[in-house]
Amino acid sequence: MQGFRNGHWIVGGCTQDYGSFTLAALGGNLRLRPEERATPFSHAEEISHPHYYAVRLPQEHLKVEMTGSSHAAIFRITPEQDGPIHILLNHNSDEGEGYLEIDNQAKTIYGYNPVHRIYQGWGEPAGFSGNFVLQAYDEIVDSGCDSLCAWFTFSGKANVPIILKAASSFTTKRGAEDNFAFEAEGHDFESMMEQLAQQWMDRLHTIDVEDPDTARVNQFYGALYRCSFLPREMSDVDGTYPSFSNGMLADGKRNFYGDYSMWDTYRAVHPLYNIIAPQQSSDMMQSLVTMYEQGGWLPIFPCWNSYTAAMIGDHCSVVLSDAYVKGIRDFNVEKAYEGMRKNAFETPASFEDYKNGMGRRALPSYLKYGYIPLEDGVKEAFHQDEQTSRTLEYAFDDFAVAQMAKALGKDADYQELMRRSENWRNVINPKTGYCDGRHEPKQISRKKTDGGKFEDNLDFIHRKSYITEGATCHYTWYVPQNVEGLVEMLGGKEKFEAKLDSMFTEGRYWHGNEPCHQIAFMYDFIDKPEKTQQRVAHILDTEYNDTPGGLSGNDDAGQMSAWYVFSSMGFYPVCPATDRYMLSAPRFQKVTLNLQNGKQFKITPESLPKDRHYITHGEIIQGN
Questions:
Q1: Residue 12 above 80 pLDDT?
Q2: pTM, whole model, 2 decimals?
């Protein structure tokens, strides 16, 4: 263990954090470099709870405990023997641009760490920094600072704790100090820990589950915990935050959120928030609108407070529509639709803006052909190619924007977007019954083209360049907006069922990544709910366990865990931007949703509808 970071991105994801600092506690000799101070620890001597963490560092003869709040933390470091105790703080700037300073009289260390973009604009400054303030209270016997780290040395006494308090901000030093004053200054370790414990209790008790199988109950709450981290609050306690895409300071009257792993979380994380945390969800939606106002384009995958175009699709539009359809209206709806429409119909006039991550990738091809042909390599994106997956996801995005257009009385937009929402048909190969790569039309005579030939791929189980993180057998099912149409196109219910069965009987289903997450629920659309229940139960039993590494893939900002939460309750949002959840079967004797409107919705094995295979959002919010 090299230390404890004050920020991580992304929960269960596969990329780096930013603007962060690492705090380390050492006994014995002072070691400044991270690799030199690395010290062993055992999970057997570690305690980890949502509100409290503790670990024994045997070679340092120290016990380190910590608790925290949104912007602050308190550390309690207890020596096992007398001797020097060193507290080091280093910035984690890969570019070597971090800064640290010590004020021995005030017993503080301050530092900043400039943020740099990845994906689009890789390595460019993001325009803002992580700021960190560390406050000590014990007598300092030595201190120092170099280009990487700053340190205090204390005269440690056996069993006498050393207390440190810290706070961070994405704005300024003053922002970190104000966050410290508001969240840390008036607390001791126990009071902050109790406050954080209560916050987590409030969160986890948004859903109460009752069952004699305590292991299953524990696993459920582990999942609910893991899908409660992102997007993250980026604003300070006074509402100040770094503006999207340029980092200039902005004043806000509500929380500003960032780091939306949107290709993952639009599926189940945000729909879950719309049920259990609608007030926070409205702030998240307004944050997306604010990003559009500040940057000029609704972002695709807004992380590092920047445009990224990291993944495919245009799913900020989906979550905005989903929130609106489900009655969450406390955000600038007209401005939201303006941004959604711009993404759906326009592409940046400036190539530099497009290269910077603004607008849908390959939109001109999609609008021209009704699909993205293989000849369009989609080069200005982290995920290049993936044309067929993009087509399928854009068709769903168009459907989602259409629902907002309909609600706002924009009929011409609604009609056009609904027409486009059927573009999925253009990449399902009628010869094979699977989605496929398709070429742009070639001229075969003066008045005729070949219509755009398919690849005629027959390998349905291995990755293809035109498919995102999967195979054609995975993406063929990605038509959540018109499953009935897909059933018809694949030859009717019996053939659809047989093909769906093959996903499970032939080992093609891959729960470890998001494109498959709606598949088990598609039996509901062909009146085979018993198969949905069977498949979902099998996934819950085999793809999750309550141990380290107990997920079959990256949690991806909580999406894997949100799938578990929904499916365990007995329903799932197969098609966000509609008010329907498709049914499976509850895994508990009783589930109680404690809603922010003061009502409760209770679920038992016998309470969900028997005459249909879905339940509506309105039914849930009305309570029972």
A1: no
A2: 0.96
